[in-house]
Amino acid sequence: MRNAPTILHLDMDAFYASVEQASKPSLRGKAVVVGGLGPRGVVATASYEARVFGVHSAMPMAQARRLAPNAAYLVPRFTLYRAISEQVMALLRELSPLVEPLSLDEAFVDLEAGGTAWDEESARVAGITLRADIRAVTGLTGSVGLAASKMLAKIASEQAKPDGLVLIEPGSERALLGPMPVRTLPGVGPATGDHLRRAGITTVEELAEAGEDELVRLLGKAHGHALYAMALAQDERPVVAEREAKSVSVEDTYDVDIHDRLRIGMEVQRLADRCVGRLRGAGLSGRTIVLKVRRYDFSTLTRSETLRGPTDDPAVVREAAARLLDSVDTTGGVRLLGVGVSGLADYTQEDLFAQAVPVPVAEEPEKGAAEAVQDWAEPVERHWRAGQDVRHAEHGHGWVQGSGLGRVTVRFETPQSPPGRVRTFFVEDPALESADPLPLVADSAHLLGRPGQSGSDRRGAPPRTPQEGGGGEDREQPAAEARASDRAQGPVEAQASSDPASLPKSWSGTGGGGATSRP
């Protein structure tokens, strides 16, 4: 453990929903829910206005609609979220070379490694400056936790929400954690929490009093040792700048079960192509092809095939996925399909290990037959999804509020405009087309100085001392490729935690910081 609160945890506030509110002036201050809008959709993020009604992440969308029927329900726009995440991660890398992203909207930063902070005061200034920079560049808010370990920094950021900063001084950790519920600790989910409650353990203090031997007896050796150490506020995990991806995968959940075997095969082929697209985007290849099938009765089957060498050839992945599908019974229908690639490498061996069977070239149909097919082709109706960006030849940029019965309703506004007017069009209106998202903040790059400028050189950031190294030289700041689905997320139970006991957002604990030491 360190002697200074130089580990920072940033968590953007209701990220997806906040982006939508910033992008759509008419939704600011109103309940917004982002997620899958179909019968089987789930909530990805809910704005704080929607949370008042009990809506929360991972809730079935149908239940959210019952709780907040007047909220705005929108599909996710991951292209925009990813672009904003890259802006935020670039700001974090100006503070330190050691940035550990956990998802698009969450990351740890080792401030000591970047020479940005070495004691309590410099860490607090770095956190305040970061929050101001994020607001200036993105127009959004983030909550910051500062502590001597990753576990405590994350707990502090939870206490800081929304739009706050909490610093936990070394020496005050045990007093802070004691009265908190055991679910506050990472790795303690509903099942473990219930197991401990039946043993009479409900708080972190009771967890520490139970002793290591008792926790090992209750939870097993590995979990018991780890939980006892956390109850004593001991966390030696370093901030890791890069996490090696173990697999790349994509999956889709369908609103209505798919029974047609031909369509199931086509969906698997489409997912295989998307998976290869992610592989190539990351500059990776893989040896093991994985097929995931969740059937009508919620039973989930996984099949895998290991190739003779790594590949990023879409034909190879498609054929392997098709072979795996042949071994799965889909008679009753499927509700989810997924294709993944593991055994990753940063090279391919296509010539030596290519396994794709040559596809015979189909004979070109006669001209008359081709014309006949075109004559019988049915027109494809355009689909407009709630929240989608559009542009109209006359009215300009807007977003879809809803569609149905052959019509689509659009509100015309931009992030920098006042709330706009609503108009309705036929879904096939040729003047209406899809559009790219607009930036949330216009011309914000100049607010942070020249590209690549280090955080300690910006106005308001704490200066580096010669003892801390760095010397104020510029470093390149590559954009963060935050691919949440490909990052290790730790134990499943760690994703579900209850709210810990509240703290004032300016709370600093007791005791002082001193000379730093790395974990």
TrEMBL record:
Required co-factor? Mg(2+)
Per the Swiss-Prot or TrEMBL record, the active site comprises E106
Q: Where is the composition biased (Gly residues)?
A: 509-519
Q: Could you tell me the keywords of this UniProt record?
A: Cytoplasm, DNA damage, DNA repair, DNA replication, DNA-binding, DNA-directed DNA polymerase, Magnesium, Metal-binding, Mutator protein, Nucleotidyltransferase, Transferase
Polar residues composition-biased segments: 495-508
Check the record and name the PROSITE patterns matching this protein: UMUC
CDD domains in UniProt? PolY_Pol_IV_kappa
Catalytic activity, reaction form? DNA(n) + a 2'-deoxyribonucleoside 5'-triphosphate = DNA(n+1) + diphosphate
The enzyme's E.C. designation? 2.7.7.7
Where along the sequence does the record put site: Substrate discrimination?
Y16
UniProt domain UmuC: residue ranges: 7-189
Reply yes or no: does the keyword Magnesium apply.
Answer: yes
Question: What residues does Mg(2+) bind to?
Answer: D11, D105
Enzyme class comes to transferase
Basic and acidic residues bias locations: 472-486
Q: Which Pfam families match?
A: IMS, IMS_C, IMS_HHH_1
Annotated region described as Disordered, given as residue ranges: 445-519
User: What PANTHER family does the record point to?
Assistant: DNA POLYMERASE KAPPA, DNA REPAIR POLYMERASE UMUC / TRANSFERASE FAMILY MEMBER
Protein family (similarity comment): Belongs to the DNA polymerase type-Y family.
Protein name (record):
DNA polymerase IV
The species this protein was found in: Streptomyces roseochromogenus subsp. oscitans DS 12.976
Q: Gene behind this chain?
A: dinB
